[in-house]
């Protein structure tokens, strides 16, 4: 057990993966000497060399496109997209190539490529640096989409993602990068499966579904609600595609109420899939419709407005209250 | 001859040519090739056979057996010349039109038809032939090829007995961001990759002028690596130029852009109607430069082959055509549940759920005797 | 009144728009002499010249990016993306620029750009030519997203989209291009609003929500269901963003049951938003969960499998049946 | 001096220079400029004032008044030289670092701060100044500029008294697909656009070698239009070269690529720590080429300005700095409901619904005295 920040846990996880498998490469803008703008790749180039930790030209399509080629040659590239808002130049390579090539080959090809995306707001940044583009990828068949919410998961999940033979879009909650927790760097074989949701706080009255940065927000809300005598169960989804529907439905059937929380705009966001699916699964158990808490259906605002844009404890509790008015 | 028709009608001076349209061997200061009669006959055979496969595919499409077909007619020399320059260790990344290259890589022609028939999205194992799947999204394969070449570098497979990558794309593709990014990556990392652009003068209905105002081979100079324009209807020149580029790439000298100056003699695909946008004269001018005729003329004039040889090749071609047709018709439709196969390599819960639900939906019809 | 195919109705609509406003331009791959691969722009270059009907270089990012620039200079470009699957190279320009620039300018700039996308399957095409990428755009704040389902709407909606000062993603159901109907080319001022849903067949038992190519499929299903004594109400959404929630909710409250139909993969598809929103709006009226009929959550299959992939009359009726088992 | 530090330490032969780092006027066969003393003093004043605004912004960021700032330190001559070459009718498309160009376009420096302070995404009306909004997604503005230039063509505004577009981007940006596509569009349509690349040697931590293996100005040759490299720290040369390129573009001679060879003297942004990736020697070498010092030296040596003038400019700069600071602190935060404004130009139901719901949510707090 060591205490690590989430950023450091990712760093250690990648380091471990690179030690375990010489085919693992890290590539992206500024991932080398600088160690990435968030220092998540800090020290890796120093230790593994420029051949394995590659500072690429400044073009995201090129990053993902060449990563695909490297994977075809037997490598396991881990690409860093510098910020969420800059993944879109790579959209074509991700959606039409990375996601579809294994199927196109009838299984002859596998593409173990990880695309790491620091995501979400709350860091006072300028435009394009605070977005939550997960819904673009959860709707893209052929991709796995995961989101870590804490250092221990970050450490394990990045290694699991790298070992996975499918392409994985890996979301990292950038405003939680500096939060610390105990990480058991030894228990490699006992990792919780990458595609499973986890109840991170048991409760009886309402199920809160969250992932990435919002898990902590929900935990805070649960602590506050407890004082009001309300027991919230928090499920950290971890994997968005595939979704652990069984685990979620089990919780919602017990509580009878469900609130979904994410930072992305509500309209067409991933919460819509959660709400639709849960309603279908748990129709007779639901005392209220699944309520969604998310960003307004607008572009991410200037940072002086982000406290109003981002779901916070109050917005979550407000939705919980509303779930009881039905 | 109209302005349109004059496109490429006279060979530009920078064009590498070793065999004229009339079948005369010419010298080039930088490129030469020394082929045995047997090798030349083999090239001729390749050209004829791939043209025959292509014709058969067009016919199959007309008869409703294929949904669509992208003909290589006119581009045989570019594809056979470059394809025969590859060693087994080299890796090729095609578009959707590289039937001739596929032939050189040993891909069974019938396997090419699956995609166009609609029974699969790609019917061969790329690793088995070192020939990647057809790529339809214009230009995207160029980055894959460069990444693959970077993998070759990391494998230490550059140098003597090294390997290289070749990637095919069209004149239209040169406008895509991806293609230009691939030039950047290749030059910055000095990757062992040959960019093989078949400039067939048209991107569907758009003539080259819509993509570039200078010859395409010169694009490379803007990225700091060599570009060369070769007569794409001259199989000798295509072989020589590609061989040299691959040798250079394999030995660590980095990327080269080859522009094979050729012509799309047919429609863009069987869905296309070129009479809407191009003049017949242009086609006629290019017919005189047919890639097969000139080899035939050369073989004939130099008495390297007799009529019996030509007849034999034609017979082989017919047989191949018949075989391709027969096996095309035999290609089974995939099972409905195949929709869920290979989407993921590892087990995936949603696929399992949807597959099961769909199976049960389908079985409902069986009990209902075919449903409503 | 004239009888037009859907493709011709679009063509006439664009022609009218170009006549009405010299700032309207048409641009894309092969839109000139060829008239587009579906002939939707047939004859426009001949009549309006190469300056107004522009055959562009082969690059979708370039098409949308330069259209933005033209709009900044006062033009109203109508871009054609040749097929649905080729919109992704333009994703960055659409998502980070087209959608956001008006907000970025605090309203100083408007971007009246229309991006036409022939969409959907059923035409026996190869990969990338049969997709339904609407969910990528409905989740992108700043865009309007509409889908026409018939010639009369096509004629009016394309003109409304061109007149709209917001960027509009305009989906055209390619397999319905050749279907004919009466089009009133005169009634320009009495057009149904672009952002309104329309009940195209009234009914009492179940509400079917559809758009684009699936409207016809639903109408066929309704005809079949009628024989079985079931009355289906069909709502053609027409506008996906903004959504005409009020009209939809009104219908669902009446029928108490709702089935959503689209071709796109169900997981994370636009149907999820519909289901989530309707459930929230109509919780007490729903006798059954909103059921979704869509493509499997896989890439679009080879064409010999598309009849199994695409929702058809049977799949729609199966869902209707299921809605009655709750 | 290390290998790193030698980057650009000696001027490459192809560099257009009219004023040496020591303040000596030199001749260039293709470019010349004839400036009155008054004009030169005005350029000096521009350089000093924009540097001062920049310094103030860095200080404001350090004090928590801005979230981040992208400094132009070292790039003043490239920006003022090119910016002063523009006429009112020309349109400029910046990145996020063109504070000097903004100055030339008459944008109030305080308006630049809104984006970095986080009160808006862009604080001016582009049409008012013919200066587009800052663009953060690398390279995307190049296509906007070309589209705009195509609009100029369609307006018939090319020719005498014509207009042109200039678009700014960095060395790193040259790797993006969009930038290369913009080169294609511009050349194919012969659009009146000047591509102004400030090669400041770094893209955050990546040196130019990660983007190109040849000088960037040569990229243009691959697309069939002229490229020129200018000493980006020489305001005379930047003015002369840009003026000529704009004149050519306006008169219908099509695009030009200008590579302004300069250096990013500061961090990439205030969030960056360049000591992690570059050596101090390099910085020292470039300090000797400071863009302001050489104009000062020239003015001084040629007795075109006296100490009083310099003091006056310095005083003006200080006053400007104070004013910018004061007005920055006064910038109000936007109202929460502004989140919903301007997302759409025309009425949009979802915006109205969400705005109303949020307003009612907020008013809940007011009645609850600030909520939980
Ligand atoms: C990204 C993308 N956009 C559009 C298309 C549609 N399309 C298919 S082939 C083609 C023209 C290609 O021209 P070129 O690159 O010259 O190759 P050729 O077909 O002539 O061999 C177009 C526009 C596509 N496949 N991919
Ligand atoms: C598409 C995209 N990818 C990544 C980034 C993050 N980023 C911001 S500035 C920058 C480097 C830009 O370098 P250059 O083009 O040389 O301009 P400079 O900052 O040196 O002026 C990067 C990678 C971005 N803004 N946009
Ligand atoms: Mg072509
Ligand atoms: Mg730079």
Automatic annotation (TrEMBL), chains A, C:
Gene3D superfamilies, A to Z: 3.40.50.920, 3.40.50.970
CDD domains, per database record: TPP_PYR_E1-PDHc-beta_like
Q: Which UniProt keywords apply?
A: Oxidoreductase, Thiamine pyrophosphate
Entries under InterPro entries matching the protein: THDP-binding (IPR029061), Transketo_C/PFOR_II (IPR009014), Transketolase-like_Pyr-bd (IPR005475), Transketolase_C (IPR033248)
* Domain of life according to the entry: Bacteria
- Asked if the keyword Membrane belongs to this entry, the reply reads no
Q: Does the keyword NADP apply?
A: no
Q: Name one GO molecular function term.
A: oxidoreductase activity
Transmembrane region positions?
none
Signal sequence extent: none
Q: Which cofactor does it need?
A: thiamine diphosphate
Residues in domain Transketolase-like pyrimidine-binding? 4-179
**What is the protein name for this chain?**
2-oxoisovalerate dehydrogenase subunit beta
Q: Give the source species.
A: Planobispora longispora
Its lineage opens with:
Bacteria, Bacillati, Actinomycetota, Actinomycetes, Streptosporangiales
Automatic annotation (TrEMBL), chains B, D:
Which keywords are on file for this protein? Oxidoreductase, Pyruvate, Thiamine pyrophosphate
The record ties this protein, via SUPFAM superfamilies, to: Thiamin diphosphate-binding fold (THDP-binding)
Which part of the chain is the Dehydrogenase E1 component domain? 48-320
MF terms (GO), sorted A to Z: magnesium ion binding; oxidoreductase activity, acting on the aldehyde or oxo group of donors, disulfide as acceptor
Q: Which Pfam families match?
A: E1_dh (PF00676)
Top-level taxon of origin: Bacteria
Its needed co-factors are: thiamine diphosphate
Q: Which GO terms describe its biological process?
A: branched-chain amino acid catabolic process
Instruction: Please name the InterPro entries in this protein's record.
Output: Alpha-ketoacid_DH_E1_comp (IPR050771), DH_E1 (IPR001017), PdhA/BkdA (IPR017596), THDP-binding (IPR029061)
Any idea what this protein is called? Answer: Pyruvate dehydrogenase E1 component subunit alpha
Q: What is the lineage of its organism?
A: Bacteria, Bacillati, Actinomycetota, Actinomycetes, Streptosporangiales
């Amino acid at each position: 057990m060591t205490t690590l920040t989430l950023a450091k846990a990712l760093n250690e996880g990648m380091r471990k993966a690179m030690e375990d498998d010489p085919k693992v490469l890290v590539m992206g803008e500024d991932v080398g000497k600088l160690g990435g703008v968030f220092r998540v790749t800090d020290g890796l180039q120093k230790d593994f060399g420029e051949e394995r930790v590659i500072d690429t030209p400044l073009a995201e399509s090129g990053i993902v496109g060449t990563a695909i080629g490297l994977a075809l040659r037997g490598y396991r590239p881990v690409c860093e997209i510098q910020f969420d808002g800059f993944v879109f130049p790579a959209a074509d390579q991700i959606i039409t190539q990375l996601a579809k090539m294994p199927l196109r080959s009838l299984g002859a090809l596998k593409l173990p490529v990880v695309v790491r995306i620091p995501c979400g707001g709350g860091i006072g940044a300028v435009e394009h640096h605070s977005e939550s583009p997960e819904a673009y990828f959860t709707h893209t068949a052929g991709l796995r989409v995961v989101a870590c919410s804490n250092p221990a998961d970050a450490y394990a999940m990045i290694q699991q993602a790298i070992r996975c033979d499918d392409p994985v879009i890996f979301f990292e909650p950038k405003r939680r990068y500096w939060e610390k927790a105990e990480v058991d760097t030894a228990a490699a074989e006992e990792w919780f499966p990458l595609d499973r949701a986890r109840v991170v706080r048991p409760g009886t009255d309402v199920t809160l579904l969250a992932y990435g940065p919002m898990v902590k927000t929900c935990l805070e809300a649960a602590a506050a609600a407890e004082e009001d005598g309300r027991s919230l169960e928090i499920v950290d989804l971890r994997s968005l595609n595939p979704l652990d529907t069984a685990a979620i439905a089990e919780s919602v059937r017990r509580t009878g109420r469900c609130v979904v929380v994410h930072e992305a705009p509500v309209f067409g966001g991933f919460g819509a899939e959660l709400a639709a699916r849960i309603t279908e699964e748990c129709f007779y158990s639901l005392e209220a419709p699944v309520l969604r808490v998310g960003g307004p259906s607008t572009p991410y605002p200037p940072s002086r407005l982000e406290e109003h844009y981002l779901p916070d404890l109050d917005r979550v509790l407000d939705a919980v209250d509303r779930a009881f008015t039905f | 001859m109209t302005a349109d028709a004059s496109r490429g009608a006279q060979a530009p001076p920078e064009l590498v040519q070793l065999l004229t349209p009339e079948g005369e061997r010419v010298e080039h200061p930088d490129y030469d090739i020394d082929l045995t009669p047997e090798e030349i006959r083999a090239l001729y055979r390749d050209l004829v056979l791939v043209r025959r496969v292509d014709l058969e595919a067009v016919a199959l499409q007309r008869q409703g057996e294929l949904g669509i077909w992208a003909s290589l007619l006119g581009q045989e020399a570019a594809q056979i010349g470059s394809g025969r320059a590859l060693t087994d260790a080299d890796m090729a990344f095609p578009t959707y039109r590289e039937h001739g290259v596929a032939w050189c890589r040993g891909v069974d022609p019938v396997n090419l038809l699956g995609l166009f028939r609609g029974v699969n999205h790609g019917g061969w194992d790329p690793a088995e032939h070192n020939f990647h799947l057809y790529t339809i999204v214009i230009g995207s394969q160029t980055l894959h090829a460069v990444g693959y070449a970077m993998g070759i570098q990391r494998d230490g497979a550059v140098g003597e007995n090294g390997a290289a990558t070749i990637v095919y794309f069209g004149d239209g593709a040169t406008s895509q961001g991806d293609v230009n990014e691939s030039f950047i990556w290749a030059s910055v990392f000095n990757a062992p990759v040959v960019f093989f652009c078949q400039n067939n003068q048209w991107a569907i209905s758009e003539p080259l002028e819509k993509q570039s105002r200078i010859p395409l081979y010169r694009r490379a100079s803007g990225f700091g690596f060599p570009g060369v324009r070769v007569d794409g209807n001259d199989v000798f020149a295509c072989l020589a130029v590609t061989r040299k580029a691959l040798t250079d790439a394999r030995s660590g000298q980095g990327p080269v852009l080859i522009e094979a100056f050729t012509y799309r003699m047919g429609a863009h695909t069987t869905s296309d109607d070129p009479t809407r946008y191009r003049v017949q004269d242009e086609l006629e001018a290019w017919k005189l430069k047919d890639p097969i005729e000139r080899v035939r003329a050369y073989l004939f004039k130099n008495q390297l082959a007799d009529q019996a040889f030509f007849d034999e090749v034609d017979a082989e071609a017919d047989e191949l055509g018949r075989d391709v047709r027969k096996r095309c018709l035999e290609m089974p439709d995939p099972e409905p549940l195949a929709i869920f196969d290979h989407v993921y390599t590892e087990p995936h819960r949603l696929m399992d759920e949807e597959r099961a639900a769909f199976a049960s939906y389908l079985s409902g019809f069986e009990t209902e005797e075919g449903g409503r």
